[in-house]
Each structure stands twice: as C-alpha cells, then as structure tokens.
C-alpha cells in the first residue's frame, strides 16, 4: 500500500499526546526510523486512514522525490501512519524476514532495480504495482545471519539514543534549566521593531520557539551565560560541497557524499556515488 492521500497537514502537532506519529517523506532514511522533528495527528484522523496504517515489521520506501531511501519499522513501534510519498511493504514473514528484505532493498542491487522501475517526466516516482517485479535473491541460512546483524544494529542504535538523551539531561542539569518550551504555533503576532532586529521574517526563520531557547539558556541558574557568540568565531574552516558539472556519478575513484548520506548524528560512507580523482583535487 502507500500512505495517506488526503491533506492533513493542518492537523499536525508537535505534541505526542494528541495521537500517533505521522511519517513524511523526509522521515524515511537511515534504515531505521528517525525521530528528528516528528509530527503527530489526532486519533480521529488516524482512525480514518485504515489502509495507511503502518505496522511493526513493515518496510517503508520513499517513492516520490528522493526515491529509494527506506526505513524498517521496529518490532516495538507504536501506532504509525504516513503520507502518500511512502510505500508500505509488508512481507509475508513466513517467507522472508522484514530485516532481510530491507537490507536487500537498501543494497546496490536492490537500489538498481528500484531506480529502474521509476517513471515520470516532471516528477519521477514509483508505481506501487511495479514494486512487485523487483527480484529478491534467496540465500537460505545466510538470511538468518543478516536478520541477526540488523537486530544487533537496532539494539546499538537504541543504546546510542539513550546516550544522546543522557547528554542532553546532563547539559540541562549543569546549566540549571528546566525543560525548554519548543511548542509550535501556525502563526504569530509581533512588533515591527522585533522583525527589523531579526532582519528576517520568512516563515522558516521567524519562529519564537527558538528565541525561547536562547532566553532559557540566558536564565540558567547554575552557570551565568552572559552572551552568545556567532559559531563562525569558533570555526577554523567553513565551506560547502560541490558537484562536478555533467558528471555521471557512477564513474570515478573517489566516494562522493550527498545530503542523504548525512543523517541523525552520523555519516553513511556506503555511498555508491563516485567522482574522478581530478575532480576531487
């Protein structure tokens, strides 16, 4: 199946208490589900989207925009749903494990077949029925080893997230601050003077919740924070990447990282993109 086709963005909330997590295309990647900037929908909305309910063990695949990124839904996942930019693949577990299917689809062999099935002129995409023609090799007992490795990796990820959470709590305790208010509103009222001081008032930049973070840190009880400084003053170097013009990224000696390889505090060095040595130099 795929995700929800109706527009529900007006119901989005950052409050997990209102209902289940709603996955968008940007939430799919990194093999396991991420939790960066999650949004939630009310239970009433969730219950009306039965065909788009996501279950533990499902393999989620991005089929519009950034095609081929995927995520395996862990066995301890709670209620989930998502947008129509996501394909929901539910394997017959008596025939193939979700872990093995996800690993194969994420491999270069699986990705080659996925991109071969894409269609479109203005915006490329995958048709659900075309997913049925992707061939999956069977390896017998070797599939059990793959499944075990995935389970081990997920356990390591859970431990890592606990470390991240512990670090954040340590920082808050050292500063002597309470939990920050990161609630988000659709619109705001402010004075022209505040906008002029901010120098930007587009929707992406002007969000008072970020201002509340700064004010909270400045009011820290245990440490006196007198000012903030621009991050540029503590950097020794800053630049951005560069994609060689008209170069076929399947050719070359030097691995080439793109935006999808930077995810959730880590780098994915398993890129299949390449550039020539002379481009690198």
How would you characterize this protein structure?
The chain is of the alpha+beta class and 281 residues long. It is 28% helix and 10% strand. It contains seven helices and eleven strands. The strands form four sheets. Strands 2-5-4-7 form a four-stranded mixed beta sheet, covered by helices on one side. Strands 3-1-6 form a three-stranded mixed beta sheet, with no helix packed on it. A two-stranded antiparallel sheet has the order 8-11. A hairpin with a 2-residue loop joins strand 9 and strand 10 (266-267). Helix 2 packs across helix 4 (141-175). The model has no long low-confidence stretch (mean pLDDT 87).
Brief account:
By secondary structure, this protein is of the alpha+beta class. Helix content is 28%, strand content 10%. The protein is built from seven helices and eleven strands.
Descriptive labels:
four-stranded mixed sheet, globular, alpha+beta, 281 residues
β-strand amount: 5-15%
Shape, per Cα inertia axes: globular
User: How far apart, in Å, are the first and last alpha carbons?
Assistant: 46 Å
Share of helical residues: 25-40%
Main sheet properties: 4 strands, mixed
The number of helical elements comes to 7
Which residues form runs of ≥5 with pLDDT under 50? none
What would the average pLDDT be, to the nearest integer?
87
- According to DSSP, the number of beta strands is 11
Rg? 22 Å
The helix/strand series, from N terminus to C terminus, equals EEEHEEEEHHHHHEEEEH
Structural class: alpha+beta
What strand line-up does the widest sheet have?
2-5-4-7
